[in-house]
């Protein structure tokens, strides 16, 4: 008998974030919740954890658990929510201890979040694929309960109530004084910010932030004392947040990716035997995640937020010395080699976003996901480079990893400014049609050939480099003009 | 109940953001995109300049539903969300059927590329939708900058001087559509925020139209939502009505919840979560009545029942294999 567990929301939980700290908090919480379940399974007689591999390591836990043996689903569900509730309780207690002067009426609301923050899914079957199918079938109906709210919403997500001591106080709507409430909330948050961060460096809470219960929890579990008391992974001592929204903020890079056709791959593995191959795969991926995070930190280009299953998110930034996009491009060209270290027959699709300082983090993450999806849609085993400006406008280009290397290694010989001007000139003369299915790609290919010797010819002969099934002249014209736009932004200043 | 089709033709851009995300520190706020506006947004226009008596009448009887959209020359055949039992991809399509008490489909990897279909082809074969009727969103988002100028100088104040809005631009020849129980005078109105102006049109929804016939058709055991579904109590939002008269869903096709909140006359309503439009319900027992006859107690109530906002507006659905599914 096989049992599969998972929970939701995962993407949404991670994306509702303003600071790097929130991303860590969300990722740590997700890993921790999975970790506690595998811990329970490890301790149970006759139950074996098939995936995730390395169940004793908390960091980078993927949020899907496969167990073999006789498992009572309800027990695991109960344990899952108990661990989450314990986390909320610790956070709430911490706040109430730090600011004892308030009269707290918010207990019920914390309890609601304890019961309804997650959808918990499970599936069972005689084989792993059967159990996974069972789980997928149950997921089609979802199982959420939304917690309604009144008054102003969290300043971060725009939904859900702001957590403050008066939350949950029973008041007649007509006698409610919203202005007065607003002042009380502001006062509470400024005092909380002081407690969280006595030096006033604005590390934990910014002046204008008013968060909901889960958002506050995400942020507070990155405190060492709270993490320690919960037995969670602590944020390393030298953690510095990104100064993105301030005027001095610099451009940052974000890489999000995941393995191609993992679902099919896993099904094949699971079919072959009793889950041994699956376990081996899961271990290999987690081991890869660990070394990826460690090596990336050593290169001092930024840090990995999560990497554990087959998916990962890394941020490129450097607090002291300005990070040049060229450094990142060089690293990206080398990434397939890093990816292959796990030794599995799986390729990777990724989205890389080079974001202007004032683009909100939540938007950056959405751009990352869209970019990753473009790579998948164009035929997988690809990278999409997207440059996002403060106005919300962007330029982007998708390329197979191996070809990225071929092109980008020559990029320093290319005069990008001139190439960019040539493109503009040709477009002004309508020699570079991007809007017609029957567009002629010869001009584009010739231009490409001039700046990247012999590559126009090569590209024409290998049109799958552009897209797995769009071979039109239009597709080639767009691909080349996108390359020029992206390349001009990323390569011309190196 | 619905006798009129209200068309909203933008004169320029439309408001496409959810206010709470936008702040000077959070200029772009792409994550806060929200379009098209839900039905309550339209209600404010009805009260504009209405007499005391009309206001009272509206307060008791106004029913709206939407959002939908249409080609301007054919507003009666408006576009509604494709039920999630039908997956219309770029080059092929697929359908969920019921077999052995479970959902099944032949091409699980296919992702929907189209979201809308004309209401008149609600019962059309999937092949027809794929070929020429399914549509993508007929709007796109464009950033629009709103500078606030100083009172005495033509320059932007240093603090909070710029506001970047995620405006929505409708494709030429298309308009938004809402169903209404009351007529609305045609003309220019401000709609949705940031002073964007629209031209409102109002047409009769004839009794003998296809849409009317569909809306009057009783729902048996399966239906799909055309608008967000709001169920539950004032404290919690749920996936289906909790009223004892409402049969229990045995199968559903749905997704993560979407927030639903409106502001009318400076009053901010309760924040709730909605079942997204397109969701499919299969019930244990037949309902034997169209949405318009559903008990308004099945809907949450805030002064009035949410049925007034057309929440969970549903049409009957045929699903292959449904007869094999036994009632519970």
UniProtKB/TrEMBL annotation, chain A:
UniProt KW keywords: Antiviral defense, Nucleotide-binding
Domain CRISPR-associated protein Cmr2 N-terminal: 2-52
GO biological process: defense response to virus
Keyword Phosphoprotein recorded: no
A Pfam family that the UniProt record links to this protein: Cas10-Cmr2_palm2
InterPro entries the UniProt entry points to: Cas10-Cmr2_palm2, Cmr2_N, CRISPR-assoc_Cmr2_N, Rev_trsase/Diguanyl_cyclase
Record-level Gene Ontology MF annotations: nucleotide binding
Residue ranges of domain Cas10/Cmr2 second palm in the record: 253-384
Identification of the protein by name: Uncharacterized protein
Organism: Gloeobacter kilaueensis (strain ATCC BAA-2537 / CCAP 1431/1 / ULC 316 / JS1)
Automatic annotation (TrEMBL), chain B:
A Pfam family reported for this protein in Swiss-Prot or TrEMBL: Cas_Cmr3
Top-rank taxon: Bacteria
InterPro entries on file: CRISPR-assoc_protein_Cmr3
Entry protein name: CRISPR-associated protein
Provenance organism: Gloeobacter kilaueensis (strain ATCC BAA-2537 / CCAP 1431/1 / ULC 316 / JS1)
